[in-house]
Specification:
Chain lengths: ~290, ~160
Amino acid sequence: MSDDLEHRLREAGHRLPGPTELETARARSSVLARRRRPRLFPVLAAAVLAGGAFGVGYAVASGGKPKPKLIVKPVPARLDAGPGFLPAEGWITVGNDTRATAINVTTAGRAATVRIVATFAPASMVPGLPQRLLPLRLPSGGEVRRLRAHVGAYALSVTVAFGTAHPSAAGLVAAREELGRIVVPTCPVALRVSPADAAAAIHSVLDWLPAHYPGKPSDLIGATATARRGHDMPRYGEAAADCGPIVASSSFEVDVVLPRLAKVSASLSELTYFVARTAQGWVVWERAR
Amino acid sequence: MTYSGEMDLGAIFDRHWPCVWRAAYAVSGDRELASDAAQDAFIRAGAALHRFDRSRPVEAWLVRIAVNRAIDLVRARRREAGEGDLPEPFALDPPLPDDELAEALRRLGPERRAVIALHYWLDYTTPEIAEILGVPLGTVNSRLARALRDLRLELEARNV
């Protein structure tokens, strides 16, 4: 019996799957991005200390009351922001285009432990999720609450962790407000495009990339791109599943190749975006790969 | 000798990610949890890489973090689902062709399943498992024996 059981166990082990290419690429990108990202707390603490020291020095020299010299201005929200969290006082947010984390640092002057993690994937990758509009509602429950929904072109998975089974009213309010700051690019109202628009679509992506690419800016040196339109897009099915056939047929799929990364990883060196022309200009409405 | 620099972490990721992910997946039975646990392992490792002694096996270190994180995540999911004494969801994708064994494994619980997975699926020896889980060798041996006993009982009960 024991031998048979051990044989069955080893047989089962042979069928254990590995991570997919997408799971690997996302994790690699996230791990290396975290490695590169400077720690925010020490930077802020150093800045506050420096500001405080300057304030004290100023007070001693002039005899006046020290004034705070450090003003942290939030980055203004943009209509094409996201996916991610809009900046807000009392919250630290980090992330890239597949995962964003918001940590509540103060609630009514007290340290709080609300942590919200949102992951974003093309909606076609997680079929069958319920369609939702923003803002998302905080699910009922205990210490950790999860929700998954199809929002815009994205499958959104959100985990809200309170650090306690009985979160305070202030913590609940803070979490609800922060959920309201999740932004996801919407499906665009796409104008008709022709093959002659391919160059403009490519330029729009290459112009957009430096501000949105989650890796090192130097990765983008020498980037090249090609574009396919509507039904000719290799990923037309995905685009149609994410934002519907009307948007998909009026979009370009722009495939970007990063030659610097090609030496490291073929999968990381190839990026794919869906773009569409709207009344306001070209819009990148999804990173498909 | 210690590790340093981004290239080191990238190279370590490329070399060990599949094994670390599999270990987390074998314990959790959930692709999302496995990715979270394995990713956490590399992020934590990246933060401590400059202190890590290069002469020690880095894979065992990463697997240790990932497996323990996976166990924590499975427990958290159980608590969150309010399942209490019920077994946690353990739905391998693709599913094991051996339905009875899959169900018996699901009922084991994450700690014992971790020992089974590390030993039979990932071919670690019991001293290596003790190192990975941070428990004495005797604990690993007893967990393994009890896990096999429970699996056997469960499979026998299904065949009665």
